[in-house]
Amino acid sequence: MSNSVYSFFHSVEQSFDKAAKFTKWDKGLLEQIKACNSVYSMRFPVKMDDGRIEVIEAYRVQHSQHKSPCKGGIRFSDEVNQDEVMALASLMTYKCAIVNVPFGGGKGGIKINPKKYSAYELEKITRRYTSELVKKNFIGPGIDVPAPDYGTGEREMAWIVDTYSSLKPGDIDAAGCVTGKPISQGGVRGRKEATGLGVFFGIREVCNMPEIMAKVGLTTGVENKTVVVQGLGNVGYHSAKFFREAGAKVVAIAEFEGAVYNKDGINEEELFAHRKATGSILNFPGCTNLAKNTDALELACDILIPAALENVINHENAGRVQAKIIGEAANGPLTPEADEILAAKGIVVVPDMYLNAGGVTVSYFEWLKNLSHVRYGRMEKRFTENMNTHIVSQIEEVSGKKISDAERKIILHGPEEVDLVHSGLEETMIAATREIMDIWKNNADIPDMRTAAYVNAINKVATSYNELGIFP
């Protein structure tokens, strides 16, 4: 939530500078990596349902072209401003580098509250924004590929791909101009839960590292760990779901209207249904209401997952946080001041810049699917099933024993698209976590996991620039 005093982009630069000290790169190269390459600030008129004309303020930032295309979501929010979009674009560069997704960072934003517009007005705004991007060559499967973000979803992505296709007739790869589309428009299965699932895979891998868990005084694994989630949107909901299914206890969930607590655990699906029915998560059966939604951040728990807004943990409340591990599912939920306070308390912060990369990882899979024009699993599903059937029948014949129907179903199952997407995401998050932890372990001077993640990102982007030899 940017205001005149606080600059989100400046806080990203602060984290970058803190990490740059642990790298060997030339100062000029580091300055190039830090800078936003292109900032497109636009204003355009749109006729509203009542006939009046409204001038819309919107942005698209391309932070880095060390890899093409640029990649990053488009948010619809009253809070959108140039500083925020620049910060989020730069985080996308570092995020993609860490999880080895070959994109440069980008981000877009339209300064509107989508709740105040009709569907037809939103469609006109989205389509006009897309045509403005096309005019300036700021969108395309090989140039810049947007995605959903705060306030946008599949519907808006479908409008974007349709507008782009109509302005670029004959572009066979037009579907790859945007990701997060409906399945029928070239979307990929598994995209909706991707960010929450990535958060789960990342934290689970940290929890499986004995030396880290010894540091925070916990046993390894996620089973029976107490979890507090702030936010019941797409990311918070799925984070809570995957932790609960893995045997953790989600003891509190917060939303803007308040927070609820139950030491025996909360079922996020039932809470979601309760909120839909009553308009609030409060007064959920079996739960205690907390006075303020921010009280949830200060509860005693093993894992805290802020999955809502920026700067919710800051110099003012960081000292009261009692979690052992904080998993940043939102973008920028901790300020640099909070980082210092939490590091001094020995709390491990798993940073947003890679932890919430599930969305962009699966977007990458969707983009590849659009460019290859074939659904994942289509080529190998039946082959795998036929081969597994053959192997099982051979084993049964040799051993003289039959396996149960339930086991047979699991073993014979050939991969669907969603299985392959989840598997690719799991591999990505585990590999990224291990890379960051290795950097942290091998340099005793690096104070926290965020700095180690930045060091990893800087090294990869700088290596890319160096190998391109783009300095005249």
- CATH fold annotation of the largest domain: Rossmann fold
Number of domains: 3
CATH evolutionary superfamily of the largest domain? NAD(P)-binding Rossmann-like Domain
Give the name of the CATH architecture of the largest domain.
Answer: 3-Layer(aba) Sandwich
What labels would you give this structure?
472 residues, alpha/beta, seven-stranded mixed β-sheet, 45% helix, 12 strands, Rossmann fold, 16 helices
Folded structure, characterized:
This protein is of the alpha/beta class and 472 residues long. It folds into three domains: 147 residues, Leucine Dehydrogenase, chain A, domain 1 (Rossmann fold), CATH 3.40.50.10860; 162 residues, NAD(P)-binding Rossmann-like Domain (Rossmann fold, 3-Layer(aba) Sandwich); 108 residues, no CATH class. It contains 16 helices and twelve strands. Helix 10 links the parallel strand 11 and strand 12. Helix 6 crosses helix 12. The chain is globular, with a radius of gyration of 23 Å. The model has no long low-confidence stretch (mean pLDDT 93).
Brief summary of the model shown:
The protein is α/β, with parallel strands linked by helices and 472 residues long. The protein is built from 16 helices and 12 strands. The protein starts with 7 loop residues before the first helix and ends with a helix.
